[in-house]
């Protein structure tokens, strides 16, 4: 949901990974593993490589955006 907020709930908009890592309070190994899992599920796409977390920027896919919206609706937000 954090990526959804960072992207303004738009698919394909680049989101800086460093900002997400700080917001989520995850170390670089945790965030790299999480992002690889989400890439495998086709919820996000790696837009650039580089930086301490391996990924410089990611973007939500349309599938990922639908998942974010679904989670927000089910949580009542």
How would you portray this structure in words?
With 77 residues, the chain is α+β, with helices and mostly antiparallel strands. It has one domain (2-68): Arc Repressor Mutant, subunit A (Orthogonal Bundle), CATH 1.10.10. It is built from four helices and three strands, in the order αβααββα. It has helices at 2-6, 17-24, 28-40, 62-75, and strands at 15-16, 44-49, 55-60. It has a three-stranded antiparallel β-sheet. Strand 2 (44-49) and strand 3 (55-60) form a beta hairpin. The longest helix has 14 residues, at 62-75. It is globular and about 35 Å long. The mean pLDDT is 87.
SSE arrangement:
Elements: H1 2-6, E1 15-16, H2 17-24, H3 28-40, E2 44-49, E3 55-60, H4 62-75
Antiparallel strand pairs: 1-3, 2-3
Per CATH, the architecture is: Orthogonal Bundle
Strand order of the largest sheet: 1-3-2
Report on the biggest sheet: 3 strands, antiparallel
* Strand residue content: 15-25%
CATH class: Mainly Alpha
The pLDDT mean sits at: 87
What level of helicity do the residues show? 40-55%
What is the CATH topology?
Arc Repressor Mutant, subunit A
Summary tags:
single chain; alpha+beta; Arc Repressor Mutant, subunit A; 18% strand; globular
A few lines on this structure:
This protein has 77 residues and is α+β, with helices and mostly antiparallel strands. It contains 4 helices and 3 strands. The chain has a single domain, classed as Arc Repressor Mutant, subunit A, CATH 1.10.10.
């Amino acid at each position: 949901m954090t990526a959804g907020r960072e992207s303004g709930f738009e698919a394909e908009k680049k989101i800086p990974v460093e900002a997400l890592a700080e917001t989520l309070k995850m170390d670089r190994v945790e965030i790299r593993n999480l992002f690889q899992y989400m890439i495998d599920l086709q919820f996000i796409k790696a837009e650039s490589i580089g930086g301490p977390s391996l990924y410089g920027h990611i973007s939500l896919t349309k599938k990922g955006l639908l998942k974010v919206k679904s989670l927000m609706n089910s949580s009542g937000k």
